[in-house]
Amino acid sequence: MRFIVAAVAVLIGVGLILTGLGNVRTRTSEETGVRRRVNDLAGASNTSTGGRAVAQGWIRVATGIAAIGFGIWFALFGPA
């Protein structure tokens, strides 16, 4: 079971890293989830550009690295 949890964490981490690097490269990012719905109701744009998008991209990369680290840690030291 712990290897399944670790694999899911690593897959999520890889997805976050790839998405974040795409945000950094293109300097654009899209809002998702609740924030997207709130922006739709308020009539605001769901696309960020420039420095804000780059910052969001690097945050996604850092979160992805943390998720991968958690997955490896959980595989090695998680409950049996």
Strand arrangement, largest sheet?
1-2
The fraction of residues assigned to DSSP E strands is 5-15%
**What general form does the structure show?**
elongated
How many β-strand runs?
Answer: 2
Structural class: mainly alpha
Q: How is the quaternary structure best described?
A: single chain
Count of individual helical segments? 3
Biggest sheet details: 2 strands, antiparallel
User: Helicity level, as a percent range?
Assistant: over 70%
Radius of gyration: 16 Å
Q: What does the average pLDDT come to?
A: 94
N-to-C CA distance: 8 Å
**Low-confidence runs (pLDDT<50, min 5 residues)?**
none
Order of helices and strands: HEHEH
Describe this structure in words.
- The chain is elongated and about 50 Å long.
- With 80 residues, the chain is mostly helical.
- The protein has helices at 2-26, 33-42, 51-77; strands at 28-30, 47-49.
- The protein contains three helices and two strands; from the N terminus they run H-E-H-E-H.
- Strands 1-2 form a two-stranded antiparallel ribbon.
